[in-house]
Every structure is written in structure tokens, then in C-alpha cells.
Amino acid sequence: MAKWVLLDAANLVQHVKIDPSNTDELTAWGWFESSDDSVDVGHEWDGTNFHAGGAFAKYRDKDVARKRRDEMLLKCDWAVLEDSPWKASGKESDLATIKTYRQTLRDLFNDASLDLTNADNWPKEPNCLLGIDTSLYPS
Questions:
Q1: 5 beta partners
Q2: 123, 126, 135, 29: which is closest to 80 by C-alpha?
Q3: CB of 123 closer than 8 Å to CB of 101
């Protein structure tokens, strides 16, 4: 069974698709096929293999967690600018989803007891942002 994965800026698996029908489209959006059947959301890619379990352990260090959070925000800054494609196209529901995602990221450190080593406590990137090549946008 083929699994296709999409990584975030910190090389953590954000999304997994099993046996998708259109693999050409996934490849174009930055997904890649994994031969590791056990790969799942939250696993870390080291460039060769996926690692489960301890992938989020490094986020015990709040500075490391903040850096990841900041990278996630930076990756979608362009989406909320005045000339954003969502404002221009009238897709206000996508824009609202992106704003909610960004606010959740900003609020991560408001609760000191929140366990950032648990992948479920990190917000998932909205589907409307998946696979967009942001390298062309200025940062």
C-alpha cells in the first residue's frame, strides 16, 4: 500500500494519503511517496528515514518550539496580505480558516501546561494551503 506524505518546514509529517488516485498532481504539490508503511502524521523525516514517537520531544525546549511555530506562521504570512489570492477570489471561508490556524499558532504559548511534545496539540495546516510553493513569495 503506497503512502504519500507532505512535510512541514520542520520536516514533520503534516498529512498522509493512502493510495491516492492522482499521484502526478501530488508530486507537483510537493508530496512524495514513502515506502515506510508505518509513517504517520507527526513522524519526523531525517532525510533518509521517518522516526516516530520522539519526533516532538525536541519541543520540550520552548525556544525550539517557538522557532517551529514562527516558521509555520512565516510559511503562510502571504496568505493574509491585502493582495492575497483568497481576498481577490472571494474565498472568504478559506481566508477565515487560515486566520484561525494562524491565531491558534500564536496562542500555543498562552497555556504553559500545554504539552508541545504531543503532535495533537499542534494545529494542522489548512487544506487550502497544502502543496502551495511558497518559495516564490518574499519573506
A1: 16, 32
A2: 126
A3: yes
Task: Tell me if residue 34 falls in helix, strand or coil.
Answer: strand
- pLDDT more than 90, % of the chain: 12
Give the chain's residues under pLDDT 70: 1, 28-29, 53-58, 88, 90, 131-139
Residues whose CB is less than 8 angstroms from the CB of residue 124 and which lie 6 or more positions away in sequence, other chains included? 14, 15, 41
In this prediction the pTM is 0.59
Q: Produce one character per residue of 82-120: b if its CB has 16 or more CB atoms within 10 Å, e if not.
A: eebebeeeeeeebbebbeebbeebeebeeeeeeebeebe
Q: How far apart, in whole angstroms, are the C-alpha atoms of residue 82 and residue 89?
A: 12
DSSP 49-85: -EE-SGGGGGGGSHHHHHHHHHHHHHHTGGGGSTT-H
